[in-house]
Amino acid sequence: ENFTKALTFARKYNLKTEEALAQHDLGRVAEIRSKIPVAKKHFEEAVAIRRELNDHEGLSKSLNRIGIIEQGWGKLEAALKYYEESYNEAATAKYVRGMAIAMNQEANAYYLKGDYKTAIEKYQLSLNHFETNKDTNGIVSTFINIGGIYNTLEKPKDAIYYYRKAIAYSEKNHYYQKLGEANNNIGGIFVPD
Description:
single chain
């Protein structure tokens, strides 16, 4: 496996930046293979090296992945701490996309906790960062997420408002990946399960 070879090479020649990157990439591979404890260990190794290097952008990425793992295990408070730290590291690096992603993950965790008000606030903040970064996928996904909360809260007008924002933004930017999802969500309001 190439990432394992990269890790061996980086260690042999004491290339810390490359070692951290290889650890992070091995974590992603382990996630894809559903080897979550192994993935977490690789991300933790990446975090330790990136702290030593003061690699704030890299720290943001690796901390975010650990947060996602904790969230998947139902440890929402632990996940929130990782997301907050991920956001702070991204802000230090002026890594706007990382700030948006970390804030979006925080919103997801608050949603899972049933704290919909805070989730919407966090989604709005992440939306601002995605807009600054002109991240079409992030913008459209966030509109859909906010619409989903309003749908959960049985506020169909608000839900439809955000789903329509997702549709309009998708069409304007020729981004059709999420168009069907937003349209289906509107349909689900009118024809519930």
